[in-house]
Write a structure and sequence with these properties.
With 1026 residues, the chain is mainly β. The protein contains twelve helices and 50 strands. It has a 22-stranded antiparallel β-barrel. It has a five-stranded mixed beta sheet with strand order 10-15-16-13-14. A four-stranded antiparallel beta sheet has the order 3-2-5-6, with no helix packed on it. The longest helix is centred in the first third of the chain and has 25 residues.
């Protein structure tokens, strides 16, 4: 039986072999041709096509994406492959023409990330680097890049504090705040320092990398302690010229506006408040009824928001052309942005141009040329008492918005005779009607020339020369306005200012890259020098004959004033990096940078900033072979390093004593000119230094799930801060390196991508926890924040923490309030004076339990910096349709709101919010607000003392972006000469969920809500490639 079975098996095998041979004998070889394009419709040049099973039989596509391959078995398979694209296997089935579209391989594209002075494969990174590509920025109606980053990267906190056109750049903090001084990250575009993200058009960006730890950022030394942001712009690719247009038009509205009560409710509640205070009510019952009826123009219900705000209009256009050969590649773009803000006269116009060129002169020498220009002009409406201080360039729209929040609804905007109704400060609509603005005209030019020379195999020399020039002309003409016969503004005046910044840098670098069997060694050494200069001039005159005569020489010469100064900085640096890789398993990296800065005295100019990091790819170990089917990458990382901060102060010469020359001394019976020392500066002042260490984990599962986890610890020593001095010192406090603080946190990012037939889905979530702690304040235990009296710095506590009385509910009755007053009001330091507590007032806590109510009972309430930030990016696609949503948010963050936000009952100069409709009364003891009181007689209002009641938990979740797109079929657009066309609808800042006391946007930075409102934008756009 076994023998018969064995014989039958061999017969079957012989028959199968003969059948296969016969197929080969009768199979016909044919010639196959076709075209290969990518998923955007661009021809793929250099794609490889081979016959499956025969790697020697193949070809590549030409400059037009075409190919021809001979001797192809008619029943065989063709394999199409290209770097950065997903390989495809296609059955021939006797066809002589096969055209395919290759899809981008996102995982492969993300394997290379931009780091300082180069790139690295993502799997080989030993430091903490986050990167996004242009796909998450494309087609979003954002006027600046910084706002678009919100919620996309863990540990990168982005706060959009206002929506003023041209001045709406968000605040960015990388891994929290680690200093008491400036904490902005170091920003470079194509390796050149810019200081702002507004200098680049979002359409020109290829990728953005954020270097978050010392291992990745130490190569930038003294400028890197607050993180580094590297923006890489698009460059030309080999192929025929391709023209792309991206444009959109959108409408803008405020995200949230404070809801305020109407004239009827305000009048009746105002009367009640006056009666409670023992005063005669202002409005009769008949007047209150007329407010309610709304038919008598003498009793208006003015909606000041409606009078002032409008629908904003924003449109953007960008044209890009790129292409080239193996020897010359080019990219050029021009862009235009026009924004009409939600307030009249708030506007922005931007024109920008960029060209990047790469030339391969010969087999050894390559040359790069980058040129960029941006003209960014914006205007902001201003009030008529904006002043003209040195800091605000003549003011801003803040005062207009403040008055719109304050002015009572029973004040008429315009009287029948055309005159304006006014309060003590005037009329905000009159300021808008006058079209008086601060105009800021900005220009930026950046030019870079670089060369790469291959000395020998593996050794390349690079030289890069760059120059950045910035200028601004600020112009503010405050007009004379007569509101009505009884009220007018001060005389008109003109304030003009001119600024110029110039930075020239040169970098010389040697790169070595060599493979020795399983050992890989990369080394880089460089030299950097830069010079920076700044100049400022200002002119001022008053009393112009007419609001239409606005040239400076038309003003009264007797009122003229002039200011001006210039400053210079220089820097010299040496830097180096070594990377070692054994078998793709064990990775080591060391960086060092030495910086010398003219900011410091000669003996203290040099700072040294090393870092060391390593990683172990466990997934490459033999003992992990059993996981190869599902675990693509598992890596653990660790790093340590020192970073510096030379930009802690705005002072160009913080070590050099300066003198004022306008002193007068009585000598010999007459006044003589002289000088005096302006302040005291220590010649030993030097760098702030941040010691950073961290550990991390990276994992990829089934080539679909990616996980990154990081923990970091950053301690900053030598923080520059004021050192208190006794009165006998006769000068102000001086600055020294005496502070220290620590910053710790955890970051997590998890992503998933998959595709099923015509469907695709992706989700990327990130979250970060951060907490800082002040360790040293120069020997004192606590001090006030120099910019906000309601914030206290205390050793052992978080930075930017509010310091206030703790309130716990409302008094249940007048008797309970009186008993509290009997206990505390006679004690020393009692903060409420003769103001009387009643039922419905806030109950302040004796937090230190000393039986007294005084300033010692103030306590830390919460920080304006969030403990947790998070984001979620969802994408989906079906055939030619695509959908994306971005959510962002923060938790453990607090915002202080004062009485101008909530309003109070002070007559014409206040407009209460609708929250007061739920105020405490004996019949409504579970109210949201304390009792209603006249003017500032209540001890509960925020102008009396700041309490925890007015410091609100501002945690929120925001739908940052929604985008729906449709790509037209190739068969529709190709016949009319269009390679690819996509139309889309995109909305920014759709909605926000929060639980604050009033409906104010939780990101607004102003405590009185006078910042220009954040906007939501709804746009229609199109992207076309030719």
């Amino acid at each position: 039986m076994k023998e018969r079975h064995s014989t039958s098996k061999w017969k079957g095998l012989l028959f199968a072999m003969l059948w296969t041979i016969s197929l080969g004998m009768f199979a016909q070889n044919i010639t196959v041709s076709g075209n290969v394009k990518d998923d955007t419709g661009l021809e793929v040049i250099g794609a490889t096509i081979i016959v499956e099973g025969n790697a020697t039989l193949g070809t590549t596509t030409d400059i037009d994406g075409n190919y021809v391959l001979n001797n192809v078995p008619s029943n065989g398979n063709l394999v199409f492959s290209y770097v950065g694209m997903k390989s495809q296997t296609v059955a021939v089935n006797g066809r002589s023409r096969i055209d395919i579209t290759m899809a981008s391989d996102t995982e492969l594209l993300e394997e290379v990330v931009v780091v300082g002075f180069g790139t690295q494969r993502k799997v080989n990174l030993t430091g903490s680097v986050a990167q996004i590509d242009n796909k998450v920025l494309e087609s979003r109606p954002v006027p600046n890049v910084s706002s678009a980053l919100q919620g996309l990267m863990p540990g990168v906190m982005v706060t959009s504090g206002q929506g003023r056109p041209g001045q709406d750049e968000a605040t960015i903090r990388v891994r929290g705040v680690g200093t008491l001084n400036k904490a902005d990250p170091y920003i470079l575009v194509d390796g050149i320092e810019t200081g702002t993200m507004n200098s680049v058009d979002p359409n020109d960006i290829e990728s953005i990398s954020v270097l978050k730890d010392a291992a990745s950022a130490a190569i930038y030394g003294s400028k890197a302690s607050n993180g580094v942001i590297l923006i890489t712009t698009k460059r030309g690719k080999t192929g025929k010229p391709r023209i792309t247009y991206n444009g959109y038009m959108g409408l803008q509205y405020p995200t949230e506006m404070i809801k305020r009560i109407d004239s009827y409710d305000y009048a009746r509640l105002y009367n009640k408040a006056m009666e409670e205070a023992g005063l005669q009510p202002r409005f009769s019952a008949e007047a209150i009824q007329k407010f309610k009826d709304g038919t008598d123009p003498a009793y208006p219900n003015t909606d000041w928001y409606d009078e002032a705000y409008r629908t904003g209009l924003q449109h953007s256009h960008n044209v890009n052309i790129g292409g080239g050969t193996d020897d010359v590649k080019y990219m050029a773009s021009v862009g235009y942005l026009d924004q009409k803000g939600i307030l009249p006269n708030a506007q922005r116009q931007q024109f920008n141009g960029r060209t990047n060129m790469d030339m391969q002169v010969n087999s050894r020498l390559g040359v790069r040329l980058n040129l960029a220009y941006i003209k960014n002009d914006y205007a902001d409406p201003v009030s008529s008492y904006a002043g003209g201080s040195s800091s605000n360039e003549g003011g801003s729209s803040d005062q207009i918005i403040r008055q719109l929040n304050r002015i009572a609804p029973w004040i008429v905007n315009r009287n029948p005779d055309g005159t304006y109704g006014t309060i003590s400060d005037g009329n905000p609509i009159a300021w808008l009607d006058a079209k008086q603005t601060v105009e800021r005209l900005n220009q930026n030019f950046t030019g870079t020339l670089g060369a790469d020379y291959k000395i020998v195999d593996g050794l390349t020399a690079t030289g890069t020369l760059s120059h950045v020039s910035n200028s601004r002309h600020s112009r503010y003409f405050q007009k004379y306005i007569r509101y009505n016969p009884n009220k007018e503004t001060e005389p008109n005046h003109l304030d003009e200012r001119y600024y110029n910044w110039n930075r020239t840098t040169f970098d010389a670098i040697l790169n070595y890259d060599k493979q020795f069997g399983l050992h890989s060694l990369k080394a880089m050494g460089g030299w950097h020098t830069e010079k920076y200069n700044y100049s400022y001039s200002r002119a001022y005159r008053e009393k112009f004959p007419s609001n239409d005569l606005t040239d400076m020489d038309a003003g009264d010469a007797a009122s003229q004033k002039n200011w001006g100064n210039s400053r210079e900085l220089a820097m010299l640096s040496w830097f180096g990096r070594v990377n070692y890789d054994f078998a793709g398993k064990y990775l080591l990296e060391a960086n060092v940078r030495a910086d010398a800065s003219s900011r410091f005295a000669p003996d203290y100019r040099w700072g040294y900033f090393p870092s060391f990091s390593g990683a172990w790819r466990l997934s490459e170990e033999s003992f992990m072979e059993g996981t190869q089917g599902w675990l693509d990458n598992l890596k653990i990382r660790a790093s340590w390093g020192l970073l510096g901060n030379q930009d802690a102060l705005d002072d160009y010469y913080p070590w050099m004593n300066t003198y004022n020359l306008d002193a007068k001394y009585l000598l010999g019976g007459s006044l003589q000119s002289g000088y005096y020392q302006k302040g005291y500066k220590l010649p030993t002042i030097t760098w702030e230094k941040a010691r950073t260490w961290g550990v991390g984990l990276d994992a990829t599962l089934n080539n679909k799930i990616n996980l990154t986890v990081d923990y970091y610890d950053r301690k900053t020593n030598g923080i520059i801060m004021d050192v208190p001095v006794p009165n006998e010192f006769a000068l102000d406090a001086y600055k020294d390196n005496v502070g220290s603080m620590v910053n710790r946190g955890i970051e997590v990012m998890l992503s998933y991508t998959n595709k099923w037939g015509d469907w695709s889905f992706g989700a990327t979530g990130n979250a970060a926890y951060n907490r800082n702690e002040i360790l040293n304040l120069g020997g004192v235990q606590q001090m006030n924040d120099p910019n906000n009296g309601n914030i206290r710095r205390i050793v052992g506590e978080r930075l930017n923490s509010y310091y206030a009385y703790k309130a716990d509910g409302f008094f249940d009755s007048d008797q309970a309030a009186q008993a509290w007053m009997d206990k505390y009001s006679t004690q020393a330091g009692y903060p409420f004076g003769n103001r009387k507590f009643k039922g419905g007032d806030l109950i302040y806590q004796d937090t230190n339990n000393d039986g007294k109510m005084n300033a010692d009972d103030r306590t830390l309430i919460g920080s304006k910096d969030p403990s947790v930030t998070f984001g979620l990016n969802l994408t989906a696609g079906y055939k030619n349709f695509d959908l994306s949503m971005i959510f962002t948010g923060a938790a453990g963050v607090y915002r202080m709101i004062n009485q101008e936000v909530t309003g109070f009952f002070d007559g014409d100069d206040s407009h209460p919010a609708t929250a007061w409709l739920n105020a405490w009364t004996p019949e409504n003891k579970n109210a949201k607000m304390p009792r209603i009181a006249y003017s500032n007689t209540s001890p509960s209002i925020s102008s009396q003392v700041m309490s925890s009641f007015w410091i609100q938990n501002a945690s929120y979740v925001r739908m940052k972006n929604l985008q729906i797109g449709y790509t037209l079929p190739k068969g529709v657009v190709n016949p009319i000469g269009i390679e690819n066309m996509r139309v889309y609808f995109s909305s920014e800042n759709l909605f926000t969920l929060h639980n604050m006391l009033v409906n104010v946007d939780p990101e607004i930075s102003s405590e009185r809500a006078s910042s220009f409102p954040l906007t939501q934008t709804h746009a229609l756009g199109v992207s076309i490639s030719f």
